[in-house]
Amino acid sequence: MVTVNDVRALALRLPRSYEVVVRGRLKFRVGRIVYLAFSKDQTIMGFGFPKEWRNVVLESEPHKFLPPDPVDVRYQWLQVRLSAIDEDEMRDLVLDAWRMVAPKSVAASLRLSAESGIGDLVEAEVDQV
User: Fold this and answer.
1) In the chain, what is the straight-line distance between the N-terminal and C-terminal CA atoms, in Å?
2) What pTM, to 2 d.p., does this model score?
3) Dihedral sign, CA of 37, 40, 42, 46?
4) SS3 (DSSP) at 84
5) Sheet containing 33-38: which strands, arranged edge to edge?
């Protein structure tokens, strides 16, 4: 089972990512854009996710994923039960959500080492043009 602390350990290592608390809810942002948010009881994680794939995921794994709250339906957003995912899946969801909001040049400069564990981020060399 994944915890908020597992997510925090990864999110805070991502370039330009920072933690805020808004109305009692923990959120992670890049700039002013939220890419992760937790329910007040910290059992559900909302994350940036392409709208066009939302229904596919909800239909294929309804035990794991939840639709966004009604106020968030218009955004590229989805929710997941933390108890239903493992660390590898959490890492993929967090990184994909971060990539949606991070500047393209920053996102392109980051890569995950395939053989590394969670949170072992490696800065890739960026070719200078």
Assistant:
1) 44
2) 0.85
3) negative
4) helix
5) 17-22, 25-30, 33-38, 44-48, 77-81, 65-66
Structure tokens at 37: 């948010």
- 4-104 carries CATH number 3.40.50.1460: no
Is 97:11 a contact under the CB 8 Å cutoff? no
pLDDT digits (tens, 9 = 90+) for 44-76: 999 999 999 999 999 999 999 999 999 999 999
CB count in 10 Å sphere of residue 51: 13
Where does 32-115 show beta strands of DSSP type E?
33-38, 44-48, 65-66, 77-81, 110-112
Q: For residue 12, what are the contacts with CB-CB under 8 A and spacing of at least 6? A: 18, 19, 28
